[in-house]
Structures are given as structure tokens and as C-alpha cells.
Amino acid sequence: MIAFFDLDRTLISTNSATDWIRQELRLGNINRRTVVRAAGWIGLYHLGFARIESALHDGAATLTGKPEAELAARTRAFWTDQIAPTIRPGAHAVLARHRRDGAHLAMLTSSSTYLGGFAAETLGIETVLANRFIVHDGRFTGSLAEPLCFGAGKLVHAERLAAEKGVSLSDCVFYTDSYSDLPVLEAVGQPVVVHPDPRLARLARARGWPVELW
User: Fold this and answer.
1) Full-model pTM
2) What is 2-212's CATH topology?
3) Of 6, 177, 181, 197, which residue is the catalytic one?
4) CB contact at 8 A, 4 and 188
């Protein structure tokens, strides 16, 4: 069995993308126009009314030509200083329970493999399924690996891991806050809604899915 976990507003209480944008603006790595555009996408996304593929591609484009090592180091500091303190208190107990039950723990997030990796390292999660920036000769090309780990793309990543582990998604559990994760919620045998966005909260009530507050 695989226990899949979303990251933003599920394992952690904050929206790491918004926090990252604020940091990058403060450090001078992006301009205010980029911030306004990204903030609009993210706001609609967390209300359950927008897809964020364009925002993800825009973010990747801002990295074109920049060193991977520099971003990785900046992301580690960002995780340690700003995001790790927002891990939801109840998340540890849920992870521990699935670990005791012998489940394979996997993070399924629209965040980057860098942030997802540092989060998984802290939380003891074995596999990270996240968005990967394409790198050539140590520098970003400005592109993302397909399929994006978002929406229906998350389901592709989950299906691949399940096939690799020889399990059916119908025997797996998925924890998330976001309506955009509906493809995976409908595919697993145990969908669990955690601190849901408004649209997902309504759907969970209609379908009788468990809602948890961590």
C-alpha cells in the first residue's frame, strides 16, 4: 500500500509557493509584475477555480540559464528557515501510523523536486513525486519535465509509482487539501481531505469523504 501526501496546506499549513515568491522578490530575483501574475494564479488555484500550468511554466522560464546548485542551496535555506516550522502538528502522527502499518510513503506535490526533497528528508517520506526543472550542464533550460505534477498529471505520477511497487491505486490512500487533486482522489481507494479548499470541502461532504484537521 502507498500513502500519498500533498505538501502545501496539507503536510504544511502554508502555501509555500506564495512564501517563495515573497522571498524571491525580496532578494531581487523576480520583479513585481511576475509577483502579481503568479499571485493571481495561486489565489484562484487555492479557491479551486484555476489551473496553474501557465504559472509553473512562467516560474521555470525565470530560471533560464541560472545555476541549479544556487537554487538548491536557496531552497534548502527557505525550507529550514520558513517552511519547516509550518509542518502541521497532526501530520507527524499520520505519517507514523502509516509507517507502522508498512505503507510506502510518497509525497505527491506541485512544488519543485528541491522543496519536496527537503520536506521528505525532514518528514521521513521515501518517495518524492514533484515538478522537475530540466537542467543541462548544471544550468536550468527554462523548461519543466512532462507531465507536470499537477491535476491529471499527478495521477500519471501516482500510477507510475503504484505500477513500480506492484500495487493498485484502489489499495492506496491520498491526503490533500485541493480540489485540483480530484483525479487522484477519485482513483485511490481511500481519499482523505485535509483542511480542504471551499470546493473540495463541498465535494467531500457530498461524497462522504473523511475530512481531517491536523
Assistant:
1) 0.88
2) Rossmann fold (3.40.50)
3) 6
4) yes
